[in-house]
Amino acid sequence: MQRGEELYFAQHYCNTFLITAFLSSYSFWMGYLMPTNRLIYYIRKHVYILGYHIDGKEALPPEWIPIEEHWLFDHLIKQY
User: Fold this and answer.
1) pLDDT by residue (tens digit) across 4-63?
2) Cβ neighbours of 78 (radius 10 Å)
């Protein structure tokens, strides 16, 4: 799929959306353009860029649901 097709698909066919790279502008717009009644999750990370702290919870809309990175590691990744 081309990017425009992916955006269209997300808006019209996806019930939920999981953002794995919260600093990606493409992921942001895909989530932002989805209908407001859809659930949007993101992996909350604490990133430091050039000495500045960026927290996904502060950078993304408040109605988007964070999944704590340490929880994801402890409950999913560590098991495998």
Assistant:
1) 898 898 889 999 999 988 889 999 999 999 999 999 999 988 888 898 888 888 889 999
2) 8
The answer to whether the CB of 22 falls within 8 A of the CB of 56 is yes
CA distance 80 to 66: 23
How many domains does one find in the chain? 1
The Cα 59–Cα 23 span in angstroms is 9
pLDDT for residue 77: 66
The domain of 19 spans 3-77
Question: Per residue in 9-43, is it b (16+ CB within 10 Å) or e — as a string?
Answer: ebeeebeebebeebeeeebbebbeebeeeeebebb
Q: Which two tokens stand for residue 40?
A: 């949007």
